[in-house]
Amino acid sequence: MDTRLLPVTTELARRLGHHRVLVEGAPFDDAIRIWNHGVGHRPAGVARCATPDDVSAAVTVAGAHGLPLSVRGGGHDWAGRSIRDGGLVVSLSDMRSVHVDPERRVAVVGGGATSADVIAATSPYGLVAATGTAGGVGMAGLTLGGGYGPLSGVHGLALDNLLAADVVLADGTQVRADPEHDADLLWALRGGGGNFGVVTSLHVRLHPLESILTGFVLFSWRQAGSVWAGLRELLAEAPDELTVQSGVFSGPDGSPVMLLSPAWAGEPETGRQWTARLEGLGDVLMSQVDVMPYATALTLVEAQMVDGSHYTIRTRTVADFTPEVVAALVEAGDTRTSPFSGTPIHHFHGAATRVAPDATAFANRDAHFVVEIVAGWRPDDADPERHVAWTDSVSAALAPVASPGGYVNLLGPDAGAQIDEAYGANASRLMELKRRYDPSGVFSATPLPEAVHR
């Protein structure tokens, strides 16, 4: 351990307990391991926090000693911003409790809880939260940046269901942001990311749902263009209950296939009719769509991920599957450099579009699709740069037909022009609130416009 850290670790150990301050060894390595194994950041230490008071102590001590910090919730940010190289990681991995009030239909969710944790706690009451598509993703990080998911059409984004948040600010102060107290902070947290403090708990609106009709429909890659063209027409008349993810994925032999993943949050028989229409868009290679618990639905995407892989991601937002967009997506599949790479595309429509653009920091409320350009490769790959180049080429091909900005939960720290446009007309208010709540720039969990940092 660097002896310069001794005053920090000594003070943290006194306030949190020795077992909660990690600087080396197997527990330290476990604490800094995240989803993207390609991130090689090495922090100076980890403070494993169990309570908001622990978080306050960690933030205060780091500030007093000039040690930069980051906050680790679910550990799913592909760019690894939760692991501050040379800094202190404020880990919330021991703060995963979920308390459900079934009568009020509200869950209080610990800052380290995953989406799967939330649904496991709410399902016994026949309730669910609006989550993303994967159970292993941290609920806080997902929600603070946006939160596209299977229920976006009927219940909006995850951030649209954030009722309040308990936050530790940069000076260690603990506040609750809700419509009556620190309403400006709540506005900023709904889409502005974890840039204003450490969110130790979320107060989340719940919805009645026993099960969901979902799964996968696969088509041969040669039909991708026509399937996307047909999907464009179908989704133009689809109800809120139907949200459809699409994209290029890998078939059993590793070759590209066209995938549709419908999620129907309504009466199952009607959903099966829509599934049949989706299957009619081409010659189906395989269709596995059925009614299942929401918790099971959150495991489907993760089953496609290979543990230990390295990843890089780019993103573009498009208004529709126009011929130009489809051509770029087909080219992406044709030139894909790895069977671990793909383009999952998120569907934004329905209830999510009926929120005013200035009601939350998340500004883009027009119907759209978010294209994830995901390159994955094994650690022993001899030429990882070819996969990175593929993501850059797909992003560049989509740029002329894409909307300004992009989804902040997917934008990397180098996506300067997209970051500057991501918040649209809300950027100036977000800048003002950043200066008010975090004037020294302690927190940088997700990208903010460059002007915020000046």
Automatic annotation (TrEMBL):
PROSITE patterns: FAD_PCMH, OX2_COVAL_FAD
Name assigned to this protein: 6-hydroxy-D-nicotine oxidase
Molecular-function GO term, any one: FAD binding
Similarity remark: Belongs to the oxygen-dependent FAD-linked oxidoreductase family.
A Pfam short name: BBE
Bilayer-spanning residue ranges: none
Native source organism of the sequence: Planotetraspora phitsanulokensis
Residue span(s) of domain FAD-binding PCMH-type: 39-209
Highest taxon above the source species: Bacteria
Cofactor(s) it depends on: FAD
PANTHER family: BINDING OXIDOREDUCTASE, PUTATIVE (AFU_ORTHOLOGUE AFUA_1G17690)-RELATED, FAD-BINDING PCMH-TYPE DOMAIN-CONTAINING PROTEIN
Keywords assigned by UniProt, alphabetized: FAD, Flavoprotein, Oxidoreductase
